[in-house]
Amino acid sequence: MTSHHSQSSSADLSLNRRGFLAAGAAVAATAAVAGLPGIARGQPASDRVGTPAASALPKRRLGSLEVSALGFGCMDFVWAYGDRLSKQESVRVIREAFDRGVTFFDTAEIYGPFTSEEYVGEALASVRDRVVIASKFGFNVTPEGQIQGLTSRPEHIKRVTEDSLRRLKTDRIDLWYQHRVDPQVPIEDVAGAVKELIQAGKVRHLGLSEAGGATIRRAHAVHPVTAVQNEYSVWTRDPEHEVLPTCEELGIGFVPWSPLGMAFHTGTITPRTRFRQGDLRGMFPRFTPEAIRANWPVVELLQRVGNRKQATPGQVALAWLLARKPWIVPIPGTTNAKHMEQNVGALQVELTAGDVQDIEDGFGRINLQGKRAPEQLLASHDIGADLGTSSAGGHGRTPLPAK
Ligand SMILES: NC(=O)c1ccc[n+]([C@@H]2O[C@H](COP(=O)([O-])OP(=O)(O)OC[C@H]3O[C@@H](n4cnc5c(N)ncnc54)[C@H](OP(=O)(O)O)[C@@H]3O)[C@@H](O)[C@H]2O)c1
């Protein structure tokens, strides 16, 4: 354990308060440069709100599974946003998250592919019994690492479970999500396969990702779904339409992915940001320079509420999710230990009902520009997973099982 863990949180807070005032001046100065009102490019990464001591993070329940109230997304080391970290650097950041009290780690077979699971396995092998590891199956990945579409056939699930267990250096996966609903395979068959893995002791809990209400219900009837992982954040409200009410009704936990809006909510993405090759945001409609400019009021809104709390806009974005429901557990992703500490600090940002209402009112006035993903990716979401589509009265995207 490093020395900063022993600092009292009040010492953290007073230090950060000073940092906050200095940062405020810097932010005001850079606003004009970026041509944006309010906060601008270079939102400081330094903590404004202290982080709780190691092992002291509050817990939350996803169905019957207890996890730290904030998890950690392990995709970004190897996938999605351009920069790749070495195994050694990734393992170090994952271990620092554990030292900060995070015990819920999110990965997937396709992150890398394969490498994110390997890094998670390496980082957590020695503390395996103290952490919850979530991973995901559902793509056809060749041994060479080429992703060739969706597949959730039961025999495929059983085979790749063995591969993931090996990479994760463990004998059980705590939460095994179907990554995307497979339109060829009845969801009952998928839930049935995971149920058998659970009975065999290789998996502990079933999860679904980018699933809509009807599919969640069908899977849950075969085996209790512990968590649904769909995109959800201040600017992505799709799950409010039918998925969150379904989870609430059935006692299923919810894990928002991209809870920081793929970094947009932190205020570090501006119209001048040029995405590197390999950065998925470069092809996302919400990340064109015009859309970033149009959507900037979202960051200003979070900043305004953050100013009352001495919190960064990113911390307010996470605190907003935590305030929605006690069974919601965000999994911010980062390659940067300082960012991880700042994100953990969001657990100390308590939003009042008035703060939440201000965010709702402010968001309601913003004319958001650009869909959350390109059409091709949206097409892989289940019916009801996206705002405006509903699986009510239907059966979702997968065929009904043969009678
Ligand atoms: N189920 C699914 O289909 C699905 C899809 C996508 C993601 N996920 C999971 O969800 C996790 C989180 O989603 P995400 O990584 O896409 O998006 P996110 O958590 O909303 O944002 C990650 C981005 O924000 C930046 N960031 C994080 N903390 C920051 C801070 N305090 N200050 C400034 N920048 C910060 C990161 O850059 P730095 O590295 O520079 O900090 C990264 O670019 C992933 O790691 C993955 O495990 C699941």
Order of helices and strands: HEEEHEHEEEHEHEHEHEHHHHH
Ligands: NADP nicotinamide-adenine-dinucleotide phosphate
Looking at the structure, the CATH topology is TIM Barrel
The whole-number mean of residue pLDDT values reads: 88
Query: Can you tell me the CATH superfamily?
Result: NADP-dependent oxidoreductase domain
Number of domains: 1
Helix content: 25-40%
What is the spatial order of strands in the main beta sheet? 3-4-5-8-9-10-11
Instruction: Please report the first level of CATH classification, the CATH class.
Output: Alpha Beta
Question: What's the architecture, going by CATH?
Answer: Alpha-Beta Barrel
Number of helices: 12
- Biggest beta sheet attributes: 7 strands, parallel
List how many beta strands DSSP finds: 11
Kindly name the structural category: alpha/beta
Radius of gyration: 20 Å
Given the C-alpha coordinates, what overall shape results? globular
Low-confidence stretches: 1-48
Beta-strand content: 5-15%
Distance from N terminus to C terminus (CA atoms, Å) equals 57 Å
Question: What is shown here, in short?
Answer:
With 403 residues, this protein is an alpha/beta fold. It has helices at 9-34, 87-99, 115-124, 154-167, 187-199, 213-222, 243-250, 289-309, 313-324, 337-345, 353-364, 375-378; strands at residues 59-62, 65-68, 72-73, 104-106, 132-137, 139-141, 147-150, 173-178, 203-209, 225-229, 253-254. NADP nicotinamide-adenine-dinucleotide phosphate (NAP) binds at residues 45, 73-76, 80-81, 106, 209-210, 229, 257-263, 266, 268, 314, 331-336, 339, 342-343.
